[in-house]
Amino acid sequence: MEPTQPMEPTQRMEPTPRTESTPRTELDLPRTIAEVTAAFSGYEEALVSDDREAITRYFWDSPDTVRFGIADRQTGAGEIRRWRWQQPPLPPGRKLFDTRISTFGTDFATVTTLFVYPGSTLVGRQTQAWVRFPVGWKIVSAHVSEIPGTPDASTGSH
């Protein structure tokens, strides 16, 4: 499999300005963004290299962890592990674009990204909720879907 393209998340360089409707939580702290970026990059590398053991370690080991896939659904870390071990490797050449990481305080983050495979007419969409636990950052909820279209990776539109 080809290695993943280096990630360059789309992110705000300065914390989001507060307004009356903004929660008191610190948003997009640079250190937290860096930590989540590293965790997400590790997950992506495990995914494209078909390291199933590593992939499943990125998920919270709980019966409450949820993953919605393109044509599947898993509830609980055990079900996610069993499903992952039955899946074939990803097609080569997966390319991420329009990756966005938002953090809320120092212990919660969301990651959204779009992805494509060479020769495909589908654009994949991926959303993950990450929580910092004493053992590190873990995915507590994930959702993957695809839509028809030809993406323009430079703008994220299709």
List descriptors.
158 residues; alpha+beta; Nuclear Transport Factor 2, Chain: A; six-stranded mixed beta sheet; 3 helices; 32% strand; disordered N terminus
Short summary:
The protein is an alpha+beta fold and 158 residues long.
- What's the architecture in CATH terms? Roll
- Portion in beta strands: 25-35%
Helix content: 10-25%
The total strand number stands at 6
Number of individual domains: 1
| H/I helix tally | 3
Q: What features would you describe in this structure?
A:
It is globular and about 45 Å long. Residues 1-6 have low confidence and may be disordered. It has a six-stranded mixed β-sheet with strand order 2-1-6-5-4-3, with helices on one face. It has three helices and six strands. Helix content is 22%, strand content 32%. The protein has one domain (30-148): Nuclear Transport Factor 2, Chain: A (Roll), CATH 3.10.450. The protein has 158 residues and is α+β, with helices and mostly antiparallel strands.
Ordered list of secondary-structure elements with their pairings:
Elements: H1 30-48, H2 52-57, E1 66-68, E2 73-75, H3 77-86, E3 95-104, E4 108-116, E5 122-133, E6 136-148
Parallel strand pairs: 1-6
Antiparallel strand pairs: 1-2, 3-4, 4-5, 5-6
